[in-house]
Design a protein that fits this description.
- The complex is a heterodimer.
- Chain A is mostly helical.
- Chain A has two domains: 8-131 and 236-263, no CATH class; 154-232, no CATH class.
- Chain A has eleven helices and two strands.
- Chain A has a two-stranded antiparallel ribbon with strand order 1-2.
- Chain B is α/β, with parallel strands linked by helices.
- The termini of chain B are far apart.
- The relative contact order of chain B is 0.14.
- Chain B has twelve helices and ten strands.
- Chain B has helices spanning 44-50, 76-82, 99-109, 114-128, 132-135, 145-157, 175-190, 203-209, 227-232, 234-239, 246-256, 268-281; strands at residues 3-11, 19-28, 33-38, 59-64, 67-68, 83-86, 163-167, 195-199, 212-217, 220-225.
- Chain B has a single domain, classed as P-loop containing nucleotide triphosphate hydrolases (Rossmann fold, 3-Layer(aba) Sandwich).
- Chain B has a six-stranded mixed beta sheet with strand order 6-7-8-3-9-10, with helices on both faces. A four-stranded antiparallel beta sheet of chain B has the order 2-1-4-5, with helices on one face.
- Classes of the chains: A mainly alpha, B alpha/beta.
- The A-B interface holds A 3, 177-178, 180-188, 202-203, 206-207, 210-211 and B 14, 49, 52, 54, 77, 80-81, 84-85, 87, 90, 92-95, 105-106, 109-110, 141, 155-156, 159.
- Chain A: It is a multi-pass membrane protein.
- Chain A: This is Energy-coupling factor transport system permease protein.
- Chain A: Keywords: Cell membrane, Membrane, Transmembrane, Transmembrane helix.
- Chain A: It comes from Halanaerobium saccharolyticum.
């Protein structure tokens, strides 16, 4: 059950998309998100979706795996769709019953929004799927580094992100174990009304928090005993490096984004 | 038959699809003390989680007290009452404010009455060697590691299981803690007639306590016999990267060097008497 959560999951493959520099990938994603919001036709979305598909194929990650990432947001998407279908008015009246009516404008906007969310999530999940957490945080640190001047602790922030991402699977595993242990003592996580269910989570959450704090403590000690002293002046084992294809990718994306926006 | 496994296989459903168990057939009867040994990743922990339905096998059937627990989901709670499972590092599951409440969690889930719960908590705290009056109102988080482990084991014992399964219960305990634990298990087995299933890396523990030893390797049961037979197969165990109990290892080495000793002994006193006897007659 808990194993379905794939936030921040990285799948290692030997592909051109994986090889791109993390900073370039973050920039590309940002540019495309902006471009996505300037699109106002379904043809534009079709074009964009085709592009995402090409990137997925190039990344050598199975399409199924990428689509699976959409599962957690399905409720949000359906909610958006229904809100628009029932509440956005205008155009022809397609169906009505007492005070409820569905109008063509609502259906159109509903599907429009849904396509936008789907493409947005698909594309951003590709970023984490193809970039290792370490590279990703290095990239973010690099992009944030101009803000250091204004007192933004860029390297500390990126270290925190690295650690948080690193411990998601560990904590999930731990949660699974604690859940089983409490079930062995007769705990029931699956039945009862909402309040009973919320209450039944206490035997899971308390040990989980305690273990997270214990791990944090251990990690802090381990870092300190290896002389970690914050980001300033730290060098890296793997430096990020721009290569020619990074720039080619960036240029292609900018051309595409401009073309799509003015289409 | 208390626990019966028939052609059980299990594959973990994740990206690695590890085949954790392969065609296991196993029968455990009432009144046995079973030691399970095996290298890390040999499937021991998966195996014992089948006994109370925490893991439903990919194929095959598991019967507890004659009831098939592999398909009917509703009765698992009942099964878990009969088969108590103490996980590795059980003190990591403590969550209540007081020792009393934490131990009472299991009985409360069974729907017992207040005085019955109190009675049970007092009884199991006595069993594991925690003074009721002294400890009942203390926070479990302020206890030492060894005491926390006792509270956690008491929490499972409070379910009054017929079968007690323990996964590496002595890991990380000091010698005294290990000794107390061994004594507790002996008492549960001999005096209270609880069937005990013990997973351990410490062969000394297994040799001293178990009446039957199961050796696992890569998801299969490779040896299932009494301790004397199992630990006489030195070569086979070494091949599975398992050790003999230290005492037995010494006796085997002495025999190799030409001293005529009985190698099927597991306790220090027996072994030293045997060595002295052998040296005298030498």
């Amino acid at each position: 059950m808990l194993k379905d959560i794939t936030i921040g999951q990285y799948i290692a493959r030997d592909s051109i998309i994986h090889a791109l520099d993390a900073r370039i990938k973050i920039m590309i994603t940002t540019i495309l998100i902006i471009a996505l919001f300037t699109i106002d036709t379904f043809t534009g979305f079709g074009f964009f979706a085709a592009f995402v598909l090409v990137v997925v194929l190039l990344s050598k990650i199975s399409v199924k795996k990428v689509l699976k990432g959409l599962k957690p947001i399905l409720i949000l998407v359906l909610f958006t769709l229904f809100i628009h279908i029932f509440l956005t008015k205008g155009g022809e009246v397609l169906w009505s019953w007492r005070f409820i009516s569905i109008e063509s404008e609502g259906v159109y906007t509903g599907f429009f929004m849904v396509s936008r969310i789907f493409i947005l999530i698909l594309f951003t999940s590709l970023l984490t799927l193809t970039t290792s957490p370490l590279q990703l945080t290095d990239g973010i640190e690099y992009i944030l580094s101009p803000l250091k001047r204004f007192g933004v602790p860029a390297s500390e922030l990126s270290m925190m992100m690295t650690i948080a991402l690193r411990f998601i699977p560990t904590l999930l595993e731990e949660a699974d174990k604690i859940m089983k242990a409490q079930q062995a003592r007769g705990a029931d996580f699956e039945s009862g009304n909402l309040i009973q269910r919320a209450k039944s989570l206490i035997p899971l959450l308390v040990p989980l928090f305690i273990s997270a704090f214990r791990r944090a403590d251990d990690l802090a000690l381990a870092m300190e005993s290896r002389c970690y002293r914050g980001g300033e002046g730290r060098t890296r084992l793997h430096e990020l490096e721009f290569r020619y294809y990074d720039f080619i990718a960036l240029i292609i994306i900018i051309i595409l984004a401009v073309a799509v926006s003015f289409y | 038959m208390l626990i019966e496994l028939n052609e059980v296989s299990h594959v973990y459903q994740d990206e690695n699809n590890v085949k954790a168990l392969k065609n296991i057939n196993l029968e455990i009867s009432r009144g046995e003390f079973i030691g399970i040994v095996g290298h890390t990743g040999s499937g021991k922990s998966t195996l014992v989680q089948l006994f109370n339905g925490l893991i439903i096998p990919s194929s095959g059937t598991v019967k507890v007290n004659g009831k098939n627990i592999t398909n009917e989901k509703s009765n698992l709670k009942e099964t878990r009452r009969h088969v108590g499972l103490v996980f590795q590092y059980p003190e990591h599951q403590l969550f209540e404010e007081t020792v009393y409440q934490d131990i009472a969690f299991g009985p409360k889930n069974l729907g017992l009455k207040k005085d019955e719960i109190r009675e049970r908590v007092e009884e199991v705290m006595g069993l594991v060697g925690l003074d009721y009056e002294e400890f009942k109102d203390r926070s479990p988080f302020n206890l030492s590691g060894g005491q926390q482990r006792k509270v956690a084991i008491a929490g499972v014992l409070a379910l009054k299981p017929e079968v007690l399964v323990l996964d590496e219960p002595s890991a990380g305990l000091d010698p005294q803690g290990r000794k107390q634990l061994a004594e507790l298990l002996k008492y549960l087995y001999q005096e209270l007639n609880i069937t005990v299933i013990l997973i351990s890396h410490r062969m000394e523990e297994i040799a001293e306590l178990a009446s039957r030893v199961i050796v696992m390797h890569q998801g299969e049961i490779v040896i299932d016999d009494n301790p004397i037979e199992v630990f006489s197969r030195e070569q086979k165990l070494h091949k599975l990267s398992l050790d003999l109990p230290q005492i037995t290892e010494i006796l085997h080495r002495l025999e190799e060097r030409g001293l005529k000793v009985n190698t099927n002994l597991f306790s220090i006193s027996e072994a030293s008497a045997e060595i002295i006897k052998a040296l005298r007659s030498h």
